[in-house]
Design brief:
The protein is built from nine helices and 16 strands. The chain is α/β, with parallel strands linked by helices. Strand 3 and strand 4 form a beta hairpin.
């Protein structure tokens, strides 16, 4: 059993939990995910890793209830437990294996949309720990839906934008990215976009025009998490990939988003 150390509601529809899982915490890297199951009757739910503490032996997950199993997750409290908490699974973010000195020469921007903010945090935190401060554009529909703002602000140059203009900058994340590059003199070598599929699609259309290499996380289409169900099959260039075993991160300019969303 994997004990829940902390359970809190980040906003009306998003929940955060810190789970005691020493072996997972010991080995996980930014970009990877875990599979959670509450009990024998529960579904196996793949969730990206939001944070980890190797010394404390804990892993942080963030989720939005969208089905029977995650609705049950939302009712759990500190002191309750998950029966299974398996991982880390998937491939770490590509920069984890790069030469640090070469990585320091790159200008990086992260686009975080909705619950996709959660897997962005461990990536920019890892970079900060290695002497690299990235820019982050945190997008949300409204002010009330913004999550992990303080955490991201502590480890990055943060730009918050809301669709309705109720907080931070006004408009979609693509508008802020275009403003930063075309009007504010920012130059980026790499963009990492994580969020709703439609958001990542339009970020990639923009970054292709701007000439920025772009990585996307295809975790939204994962189901089984082991490569057996085929639900996360996608076209990446002229190859067929599975998000859970070959990713979840891929070159966004090669991903066929329209096919993946179908």
């Amino acid at each position: 059993m994997y004990k829940i150390i902390k359970a809190e509601k980040l906003n009306e529809i998003v929940y955060l939990m810190v789970v005691e899982a020493p072996m997972v915490a010991k080995h996980c890297q930014p970009g990877q995910f875990i599979i959670v199951k509450e009990d024998d009757a529960g579904e196996r739910i793949p969730l990206t890793i939001c944070d980890y503490d190797r010394e404390a032996g804990t892993v942080t997950i963030v989720f939005q209830p969208i089905g029977a199993s995650t609705e049950k997750f939302a009712k759990l409290q500190a002191g309750d437990s998950f029966e299974d908490f398996v991982g880390p699974l998937g491939c770490p973010s590509e920069f984890v294996n790069e030469d640090i000195e070469e990585l320091k020469k790159k200008k990086m921007v992260f686009i975080a949309g909705g619950v996709g903010t959660a897997p962005v945090y461990p990536q920019v935190k890892w970079l900060k720990e290695h002497g690299i401060t990235a820019d982050v554009i945190l997008g949300s529909k409204t002010k009330d839906m913004v999550i992990l703002e303080k955490e991201l602000a502590a480890v990055s140059n943060l730009y918050v934008t809301t669709d309705d203009g109720s907080y931070g900058r006004s408009g979609m994340v693509t508008k802020t990215l275009e403003d930063l590059v075309t009007n504010e003199g920012k130059q980026y070598d790499v963009c990492v976009a994580i969020g709703p599929m439609i958001m990542m699609k339009f970020v990639c259309l923009l970054t292709k025009k701007l000439g920025i290499h772009t990585i996307v996380s295809m975790n939204p289409i994962m189901v089984d998490g082991t490569g057996m169900c085929g639900a996360c099959r996608l076209q990446v260039g002229d190859e067929i990939k599975f998000a859970c075993v070959d990713g979840p991160e891929f070159d966004g300019h090669l991903v066929d988003f329209d096919q993946a969303m179908k």
